[in-house]
């Protein structure tokens, strides 16, 4: 296949969300939870649900801050506050999991593994496009995640660095401007596993690619999402009946 057969023949810059899209944060968190002192209030069979609740609480916080037009907050502070609330709800005090344990859990968000399709897929895409992280959080977080996951990116744009938070449409336009890509000419694609992210990117004029991951968007209707975005790619492990999924499937669709 040649690039002329691509649904995005003019694309030059691919902007990627990070956690959930490129990296499996869930395995990172649950793996650490298994090593901690066991608690009656949080048995191992509840670790997955706890991690998902922590992630959901984080999204609720950043969306509330966005709607209130509050300033950016260090993602570690947000994760810490949500964690403390979840532990308090389960009556898990500092005598059970002390500050060192809690800090270790927060820092674990900086250590993630890439989804199985990502490293090879990114390598293929980088031969023909600039691949750029555009995600909420701090630049330190992005550096740590990329190092731990082995991600080779051309640029990292954090909400901290740009001074704006997704889904503010200005952040997509600013990122495109900084790499010299023209949104209106079809040169920019936003790739994410979060529908809210792509809805905002579409308003900004970017092409949109949804990567369906098993840990993300549990409250979305995926039939609706499929109809909203320009391209819907199944990135769930072992569920699409094909050996090609996620970023590998995206590379093939783009003609590379």
From TrEMBL:
<dbReference type="InterPro" id="IPR023214">
    <property type="entry name" value="HAD_sf"/>
</dbReference>
<dbReference type="Pfam" id="PF00702">
    <property type="entry name" value="Hydrolase"/>
</dbReference>
<dbReference type="InterPro" id="IPR051540">
    <property type="entry name" value="S-2-haloacid_dehalogenase"/>
</dbReference>
<dbReference type="GO" id="GO:0016787">
    <property type="term" value="F:hydrolase activity"/>
</dbReference>
<protein>
    <recommendedName>
        <fullName>Haloacid dehalogenase, type II</fullName>
    </recommendedName>
</protein>
<keyword id="KW-0378">Hydrolase</keyword>
<dbReference type="InterPro" id="IPR023198">
    <property type="entry name" value="PGP-like_dom2"/>
</dbReference>
<dbReference type="InterPro" id="IPR036412">
    <property type="entry name" value="HAD-like_sf"/>
</dbReference>
